[in-house]
Every structure is written in C-alpha cells, then in structure tokens.
Amino acid sequence: MARKKKKKKGGLKSFFSKKKKSKRSKRKDSDSFVTGLKVALSIMFLTILVAGGAIGLIYMDRYVSSSAQGENGERLEGSLKLIDYPAWLNQDWIDTLVATAGGKRFPLDQGWAQTVATRLATLSWLDNVQVQTTPEYLTVKADYRRPVGLVQLGRKRKVYLDADMTVLDFIPVTSIPVVEIKGLASTKVPKPGQTWLADDAAAAVELLDLLYMADLHFQQEKGSDPASSPDKKIPEKPLLNEIESIDVSNVAARKSRSAPNIILNVTDGTKVYWGAAWGQANIYFEADEKDKLARLYQFFMDHSNTLGGAAKYIELRWPQDSIPRPR
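Now predict its structure.
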C-alpha cells in the first residue's frame, strides 16, 4: 500500500492565517502607540501651558516692578498734580499740602502713591483722599472742606469751621469771605479734623453758609447770558463781603428775650438784626427766613450793593418792611 503523505503544516492556509494574526497584532500595537502618543502630547501640552503661564506671571511682575523706571533703568519721578481742586485754594494752602506730602517730587509707583495718600489724610481740610500714579505725575483727588466761619481762640490761635462743623487748621484765605464768629458760650474747640457740637456755633455756620450759597447763586446768574433777563436785578457783588463778624451771644435768647438772637456786624459798624437761628423763626414769631433773606438782599441792592452807610441797624425780624433807623 502506498503510504499516505502527511500534510505539511503551513501552506497557503497557514500562511494567510499567520498573516491575519500578524495584522491584528500590528493593529493593536498601532492603536496602543497612537493612544500613548496622544496621552504624551496632552501631558506635554499641559506642561507647556503651565510653564508658559508661570513665565507670563514672572514677566508681568517684572514689568510692574520696573514700571517706575525709564528706558535706561533710571527711576522715574514726578510732581503732584491736583485734580478738581476748588478755586479758593490759594498758594498757602497748596504749599501746606505739598509740605505734608513730603516734597515736590516722588517716585512714580503705587507704593509711593499710597504713602502720599496716607500723609495727606492727616490734613483736617481734606477728605476722601485718592492718589494715583501716571507716567508723569502722582495725581491727587480729594474733597476739600471749605472754611465758613472763623473762631478766635486766645490772642494767637485761630481755627476754621466748615459747613459740617468740622474744625479746620487755620491757613489764611483771601479769595472767599470767612466771617468771624463771636459771642460763643464756650471756646473749648476740639482738635482739627473733629466735629464741634456747639449749638451757637452751628447756628452761625448755617446762616453764613446760606449767605455764601445765595451769593454764589447770584454770581452764577450774573455770569450767564445777561441778555436773557435784562430786567432782572441781581447783586453786583457778594453780600457776605460786607459782613465782618456774626454775634451769637444771645442764641436761644439765653441773655434776653427781646434782643436779637443773631446779629450780623457790617464792616462799617452797621448791625443787621437777623434774629432767631435758621428754622426757629416761628418760635419767636418772627418773619420767615426766606422773607428775611429776600429783604436783606433787596436792601443791599437798593443801596448800591452795600449794607453800610444808610442806617444804624437793619431790622429783619418782623414781618413788616424793614425800617432802617437813622444814625
């Protein structure tokens, strides 16, 4: 018998089966490689992103630190620049502000801006101080407390009071009228920057501030187009310039029921009998405060914009028309 030939393993079938197996294996290896590559790239991207952010922060920090330096590395300096300061702020007040800040020129960085703001906050006549850095200046913006009344403390010391009864250091001011307050029951005035709770001083300050605001209103009308109201009569100058002092020694009738509570003393010696403190006219059966104010300004304009020279005193307390008494 013929011996059967053994089929050799392999052949085309075996070859194709090996090829298929090899392709599957390679495909799995390829997929694993791609997946690994993606993971590696993601990790690399995140690493670069974090590193880039850190470098950016370092760069910004260096930029901020060197923002007060010039192109050659020198430290930049600048002067103070006052923003929106009032017209009455004269050179003496500005010199005091500059001296308190610590000089005329300062490094232009935020640290010095804060230092200057802290120093200026010690001035009794400044409030809400804000100092900012610019490429050329340290800008100063603040609320300026305007002096309204003057209080003489002894022979040498003087202080101001603003509209809110804040005590202010005395620095001569000439561009606005600041009237001396006399007849105060007490002159134990708090330190500058503090509020003084004194009824008689408050009555004086309130009236003086109202006169100032009335003057300001008329001056603004005068500065507007005069052709718009040619027949309208307004004062030619501030009435408050005529007032030398205000006497509050009889506020609340503490000395005499019949005497005026408040008296305005004109520069030539004429007295204006104002009467009760603002808002208290009805208690003393006096004319309304607005009526008093209107008659006072009418008298002022009728006598060539002055309160002096026409009468010994001007009576405003009673509702009837004022009857100036002869000297």
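Confidence is low (pLDDT under 50) at residues 1-28, 48-67.
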